[in-house]
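The data are passed on as follows:
___
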Amino acid sequence: MDEKRQRLIFLVDDDAKLRKLLVKFLKEHGFVLREFSDGSMVTAAIEAEEPEAVILDIMLPGESGLDILRRIRQESAVPVIMLTAKGEDEDRILGLELGSDDYLPKPFNPRELLARLNAIMRRAASAQDVKVLSTDTMEVAGLLLNRNRRTVSSGGTELPLSATEFKLLEALMSRPNMILSRDELLNYARGKDFGPFDRSIDVHIGKLRTKIESLPGAKKCIKTVWGSGYMLEDRP
């Protein structure tokens, strides 16, 4: 395979044996990996080389993976998978809050990493398909969202949404055809209406879905993915 056509991935982990294993495995599946044993040069390299994804360990010498993730998110929306110690739920949750796209506890099967890597790259590609009309507006599934005016309309009819409903719909429209977990939606729509792991998000989504589907000719676009979360489906 022509290396120029292969997919560039950054791997940030201080475990040399793990890096060697993953480089060999992922190379067999069409990836080119650039290795880093710490995060000191990662953000500059992301800007220069524009990888398609980053695999980032939390436990690193010196600066932690969470601190590196903070720096990455200040400059880039590149998909990031965090590698976490098994059972470290606090690190996993904080990583999601800081903007990681997925996580995988160690030890793990390289095939699962490959599946998760392909999934976040598909989601990133899908997000790029959002019809951005300006810096403040986007159109997905027949819905027109205006961030500046904080309105959503369809066919010229404006939807009366609460602040929470607007934030939830904005999150779903920003990533069409991508499953967002309840935790991810809570983090995006953070506000006084929610407490930690509050299941009232289901109520907000239910109200939002009802309002959208009440419009003449509107599609049933918000899908419940049982056991996973919600997705805004954008189909022809």
